[in-house]
Amino acid sequence: MNSVTECFGSMVFNDSVMRQRLPKEVFQQVQRSIIDGRRLDSAVATVVANAMKDWAIEKGATHFSHWFQPMTGITAEKHESFLSPIGGGRVIMEFSGKELIQGEPDASSFPSGGLRATFEARGYTAWDPTSYAFIKDGILCIPTAFCSYGGEALDKKTPLLRSMEAINRQGLRIIRLFGNSQVTSIKTTVGPEQEYFLIDREVFEKRKDLIYTGRTLFGARPPKGQELDDHYFGAIKPRVAAFMKELNEELWKLGVMAKTEHNEVAPGQHELAPIFTTTNIAADHNQLTMELMRKIAKKHNMVCLLHEKPFAGLNGSGKHNNWSICTNTGVNLLEPGETPYENAQFLLFLCAVIQAVDDYQDMLRISVASAANDHRLGANEAPPAVVSMYLGSELESILSAIENDTPHGGTKKEQIKVGVHVLPKFPRDTTDRNRTSPFAFTGNKFEFRMPGSSASISGVNVVLNTAVAESLRQYADILEKAEDFEAALHDLIRDVIRKHKRILFNGNGYDESWLREAEKRGLLNLPSTPDCAPYYLAPKNLELFTRHRVYSESEIRARYEIKLDSYCKVRRMEALTLLEMTRKEILPAASRYADSLAETALKRKQLLPQADCGFETELCEQIAALISAAYEKAKRLEANLASPPAGDSLRLAFFFRDQVLSLMEELRKDLDELERLTASDFWPLPTYGELLFSVND
Ligand code: ADP
Ligand code: MG
Asked: How far is ligand 1, taken at its centre, from the CA of residue 653, in Å?
């Protein structure tokens, strides 16, 4: 297979394969279930399963797997072969409709946040027919949702699908109010831009911190970092180019529309962006993308780091979540229209997003919170931990004209009556983009820039979809009752702008003064995971998710527990790794170096009693002092780790932040200083410079 068009989707059981291989009637039933999200009946499923199996075997597959996304944030699969005995020691290859539709993995080893305490250990996986089956490494993978037998979502896909239903329900009510009867469904679309680092495998393997935790826990600043901005969009090195080529080809085979690739700001940092697609598919594809990045990097003797902050002092990696809403007739509802009605509809959807981001800042912040992303947010290269929104000056001035009933426009200034007037055209802005905003309107979509590079995008989109569904629900309730639709619409939009404009901010989000201003406006500033986690359980948030049937209360509580639990586990692992490296590698190395300095000085004094030996003695003294200081801190860290507070998980998370992480950071300062002072021959670990510039050819 040579041409891209031929190779694209060659490992996917997509529409065109189904059209070829399924009887017409069955094909149409599958299509209908894809569009309306209805379950296939078992007779149809049997035919589909059979066709899928034949196709997969022709492509060399021997096994199938329900492919799902437990709350670990990564994907899970359990392979079953198609083999089925028929007696006489012989087998046939079989795959039933039942096996396609439902699987029963043991749920007991996946995080459940306590959901399992009340339910059986067993869980089941159910096919999501809207996301195509595909073949990966000889396995036919069937994208599935994963639930407990009580029906509780144990995964990331189920709530995402529910949130898409919620925004579909409420969005359709609004669309109907604008007199549109053709649209039968609306879906959100996402294009996630994925950032990552590539480093050479050999240096990676020498750093236990990278191996165990995905980030460097210490490391002195290299003489050259990203100051020259010479890496961003720079020429791609041959070895990286070879990796990208293979990655693209493998993604294309799986139907992932990898489109843009370039070098990012930090040395060794890169980005890949796909063409956007329906949200649940985008989430599946992003998981596949991360998996393939890791795998293919290894083949090229490199390691792909997806951690949000692998290196202190350099840019971290994020995953910009570009998000919009689209009708089944192909209209982007966040695209300003041509007629007064289209424009009014656009403004109303825009308001729905503004209100959603303001009302649910806390949930958006939670959706991106993790031990890893805490290092990145607010660190001068990523949005601060305060959620705000950027619309661009053009759009803001229109909103402010509506808000104040003041005239707007160029030569022919007039008052804007929503629903009556065509909006003045505003350019699809690419020029005055605000890269410091956490949530920016970019002409026909929003770009949420807080998500971290390693996280699943499901969580953020669950919040976005549901919060916007809630704004739309409130608007539909008002407008459906209105006697004068246009007047009610105008007033509604004006009121929403008045009430929620505090969330709009066009200035520099990285500036200190913004944090003070944000505080004055009453916006939340939640720097760390333990700070924001309690908002999960705020009554308004429980109300939001239960009202739209996205999460039950126990499902939210489970997620709250899992978030804190994983925060604590990560911090604990990091602390243990740092301690081990300090004791077994760093202090012994520094001590050996100090010894050798002392020995040299002694010998020299014996030989030349007048010799100064300033370098050796001073350095030996400094190193010895640092070793003692570091050793004391390591002991304190160890003591802290050994005595975690009793009580709930929130208390434990604060303990890890304040008594563990903070001490690790103090210890790190001594270690970095030791690294700066110790001769290269003695330093046992690759330095930042060696890691960052390890892929050079
Ligand atoms: P950048 O932010 O780097 O300038 P682009 O504007 O090219 O990037 O787009 C970034 C991402 O936004 C791409 O993945 C693209 O497919 C996605 N995107 C474009 N339109 C939409 C849309 N309507 N809905 C969701 N994502 C979109
Ligand atoms: Mg972007």
From this structure: 36
Q: Is the dihedral of CA 603, 609, 615, 618 positive or negative?
A: positive
Q: Which atom of ligand 1 is nearest to the CA of 326?
A: 23
- Degrees, nearest 5: CA angle 479-484-488: 50
pLDDT digit string, tens, across residues 626-666: 999 999 999 999 999 999 999 899 999 999 999 999 999 99
Q: Is the pLDDT of residue 111 over 90?
A: no
φ, ψ at 267 (rounded to 5°):
-60, 135
State in Å: Cα 447 to ligand 2 middle: 7
The ligand minimizing its distance to the Cα of 260 is 1
270 C-beta closer than 6 A to ligand 1: no
Residue 444 in contact with ligand 1 by CB distance below 6 A: yes
Average pLDDT, the chain: 91
- Say how far apart CA 226 and CA 485 lie, in whole Å: 55
| CB 390 near ligand 1, within 6 Å | no
CA of 55 to the centre of ligand 1 (A): 33
pLDDT by residue (tens digit) across 257-275? 999 888 888 889 999 999 9
Contacts of 244 (CB under 8 A, 6+ apart): 236, 261, 270, 272
Q: Quick one: which ligand is closest to 191's CA?
A: 1
Residue with CA at minimum distance from ligand 1 atom 13 = 191
Q: What angle do CA 258, 261, 262 make, to 5 degrees?
A: 170
> Using CA atoms, how far apart are residues 180 and 299, in angstroms rounded to an integer?
52
Ligand 2 centroid–CA 511 distance in Å is 20
Tell which atom from ligand 1 comes closest to the C-alpha of 260: 7
Q: Where are the beta strands (DSSP E) in 298-344?
A: 302-305, 319-327
- Report yes or no on whether pTM surpasses 0.70: yes
Q: What percent of the chain has pLDDT over 70?
A: 95
The CATH code of the domain at 194-317 is: 3.30.590.10
Could you state, in order of their start, the residue ranges of all structural domains in the chain?
4-155, 156-193+318-551, 194-317, 566-692
Q: Quick one: pLDDT at residue 430?
A: 45
- CB of residue 264 inside a 6 A radius of ligand 1: no
Note the pLDDT tens digit of each residue in 25-38.
999 999 888 777 67
Pocket test for ligand 1, best of 187, 257, 319, 322 (most atoms within 8 A of CB): 322
Q: For ligand 1, say whether the CB of 195 is within 6 Å of any of its atoms.
A: no
| 534 or 394, greater pLDDT | 534
Which CATH architecture does the domain made up of 566-692 adopt?
Up-down Bundle (1.20)
Any atom of ligand 1 within 6 Å of the Cβ of 233: no
Atom 11 of ligand 1, nearest CA residue: 191
Q: What is the mean predicted confidence (pLDDT) over 93-112?
A: 84
Cα–Cα distance for residue pair 36/42, rounded to 1 Å: 17
**Residue 426, pLDDT above cutoff 60:** no
What CATH fold (topology level) applies to the domain 4-155?
Ubiquitin-like (UB roll) (3.10.20)
Dist. CA 206–CA 193, nearest whole Å: 30
Q: Is the CB of 275 under 6 A from ligand 1?
A: yes
What DSSP character marks residue 526?
-
Does the beta carbon of 321 lie inside 6 Å of ligand 1? no
